[in-house]
Amino acid sequence: MQKIALITASLALLAAPVLAEDAKTTGTAPANAKFATVAKDEMFSSKLKGLNVYNQKDESVGEITDIAIKNNQVDALILSVGGFLGVGERYVAVSPSSVNVRYDSKNNKWLASMNTTKEALKAAPEFKYPK
């Protein structure tokens, strides 16, 4: 019993200086910080990246591989087009307004479509990442 009392007293002495300090928060948040709620059917970039894009004939014409943001808005979607298993593929930047992204609640998945052909995307100017 004396051992338990001695251990308890030792721990109390060691913890006392820590408990005596005031709790402080470091850093500051802007006074105008706003928080949002997110619905389950909202699009996340993690769901958008890797999404296959289909045309009006239900042919896969590319895959969304990246998102370009400018002035706090999506400026372009980067599509991987052509190639097979990563060989011969190239990238094109397309306007987000040209890609229709929608949630299919019946099948619980996201779909992307675009009114174009594989050939048109292959002929589009190639996008190269800035260095």
Question: Can you walk through the features of this model?
Answer:
- The structure is a single chain.
- 11% of the residues are buried.
- The protein is globular.
- β2 and β3 (73-81) form a beta hairpin.
- Residues 1-21 have low confidence and may be disordered.
- The protein has helices spanning 2-20, 45-48, 118-123, and strands spanning 52-54, 60-70, 73-81, 90-94, 99-104, 109-114.
- The protein has 131 residues and is an alpha+beta fold.
- A 6-stranded mixed beta sheet has the order 4-3-2-1-6-5.
- Helices cover 22% and strands 31% of the residues.
Which overall shape is indicated by the principal axes computed on the Cα atoms?
Answer: globular
Given the helix and strand composition, which structural class is it?
alpha+beta
| Low-confidence runs | 1-21
Radius of gyration: 27 Å
Secondary-structure element series: HHEEEEEEH
Biggest sheet statistics: 6 strands, mixed
Share of residues in helices: 10-25%
Structure characteristics:
131 residues; alpha+beta; six-stranded mixed β-sheet; 3 helices; 6 strands; 22% helix; disordered N terminus
Short description:
22% of the residues lie in helices and 31% in strands. It has 131 residues and is α+β, with helices and mostly antiparallel strands.
What order do the helices and strands come in, and which of them pair?
Blueprint: H1 2-20, H2 45-48, E1 52-54, E2 60-70, E3 73-81, E4 90-94, E5 99-104, E6 109-114, H3 118-123
Parallel strand pairs: 1-6
Antiparallel strand pairs: 1-2, 2-3, 3-4, 5-6
